[in-house]
Amino acid sequence: MNYLSLFTLLLTLSFSTVTAQDEAASEILTKWKNAAQYTINLIDSMPAEHFDFKPTPEIKSFSEQVTHIVDNMTWLSNSYLGAEKFEKQEPTTKAEHIEYMRKACAYAGQAMEAALKNPDLLKTEQKFFAGPMTGRQIVRLMHDHVTHHRGQLIIYLRLKGIKPPKYFGW
Predict the structure, then answer these.
(1) Do residues 143 and 35 lie in contact, with contact meaning Cβ atoms separated by under 8 Å?
(2) Domains of the chain by start residue, with CATH
(3) pLDDT tens digit at each of 170 positions of the chain
């Protein structure tokens, strides 16, 4: 194989890898935006008078679940994805909870987008309370954590006799 052919092959493989990485990042961010909107729709489905609802005394109320989701995604974004500090709030009304979630999802989405453009951050292990994690694992963890608690919000709605909005997270 001559040098020109080898160079062309390496260049083609390099562009293919970059394109695949860009496509994967785009898919992750699209999923995040859709899932964020679905989460906001779920929050909006709960009547304001039920935001303090707790299915049992030992678990979080609906509003505490919402705040927990925000606190976790903003903590992960700031602590592990390099985002600047997020201004923590104590929402009390339904409208404040929705706006707080909207801001937090946008903040976390921007942190994810920046992280997905930084191969070193994605592959470098960082100290984490559950064991070392790469930036890529943190992005997955953030998605998983939101999904876990969003599922709990769905149960809270159902226990109040409210049909959750149709899922469209993909």
Answers:
(1) yes
(2) 58-170 (1.20.120.450)
(3) 566 665 555 545 454 445 556 788 889 999 999 999 999 999 999 999 999 999 999 999 999 999 999 999 999 999 999 999 999 999 999 999 999 999 999 999 999 999 999 999 999 999 999 999 999 999 999 999 999 999 999 999 999 999 999 987 66
**8 Å CB contact between 137 and 33:** no
Give 3-state DSSP helix, strand, coil % of the chain, rounded to 5.
70, 0, 30
- Taking the C-alpha atoms of residue 104 and residue 167, their distance in angstroms, rounded to an integer, is 20
pTM confidence score: 0.85
